[in-house]
From TrEMBL:
Coiled coil stretches, renumbered: none
Protein's name in the database: Class D sortase
Record InterPro entries: Sortase, Sortase_D, Sortase_D_1, Sortase_dom-sf
Species classification: Bacteria, Bacillati, Bacillota, Bacilli, Bacillales
Domain of life: Bacteria
CDD domains the UniProt entry points to: Sortase_D_1
Keywords, sorted A to Z: Hydrolase
Catalytic residues in the record: 121, 178
One annotated GO molecular function: hydrolase activity
Pfam families on file: Sortase (PF04203)
Provenance organism: Heyndrickxia camelliae
Length: 205
């Protein structure tokens, strides 16, 4: 009887060991299979294509790749209020002002950010400029396009006032002429129109 019990216990022990090894082997197999499939999937998975990178500090295209030379006619000033179209020349010396409106070379060109300054004689091109005031339009056409400014301020300053040509944070057009308009001799003042850029129609390149 004792021998028989011993055999039963031995058989049960072997059976438990076999079952345990079977279960363990099955789990190990499943783990190895899963891990292998994961690695294969990771190796051959197609990563999504990243968006096209944006170039940092990309400079906008220049409105004027070539700057006009002194004395060159590079555009025209249109004053709808006066039904006038006036030629613009680079430079604001007597040679340029004798031919039309002069562009002060130390300022930006029309359409560009900052202060673009134009000047003209009160007894020629700007004879009727006093009729133009706040709310009126000033249009400049150049090789870069058409730029429309709206007069936001009218100033009368001394002839030596340098605030006329100071830089501006936005695209601005400043138009200057001598004042009073009917003064005999060298006029002591300047009549100033200051306009902000209202709209732009860039030329097709």
């Amino acid at each position: 009887m004792k021998k028989r019990n011993t055999k039963i216990i031995l058989f049960a022990s072997i059976l438990v060991i076999v079952i345990g090894v079977g279960i363990s082997t099955s789990n190990v197999f499943k783990f190895v299979k899963g891990y292998t499939l994961y690695k294969i999937h990771k190796a051959y998975a197609v990563s999504p294509k990243p968006d096209k990178p944006v170039e940092k500090n990309q400079e906008p295209k220049a409105l004027y790749p070539v700057r006009p030379k002194t004395g060159e006619n590079f555009g025209e000033l249109i004053i709808p209020k006066l039904d006038a179209t006036l030629p613009i020349f680079e430079g604001a010396n007597e040679n340029e002002l004798a031919k039309g409106v002069g562009h002060y070379g130390g300022s930006v060109l029309p359409g560009e950010k900052d202060n673009s300054v134009l000047a003209g004689h009160r007894d020629t091109v700007f004879r009727k400029l006093g009729e133009v005031g706040k709310g009126d339009l000033l249009i400049v056409r150049t090789s870069a396009g058409e730029f429309t400014y709206k007069v936001s301020k009218v100033r009368i300053v001394d002839k030596d006032d340098r605030t006329v040509i100071v830089p501006r944070p936005t695209a601005t057009l400043t138009v200057s002429t001598c004042y009073p308009f009917y003064f005999i001799g060298q006029a002591p003042k300047r009549y100033i129109l200051v306009g902000y850029l209202l709209s732009s129609k860039l030329a097709m390149k």
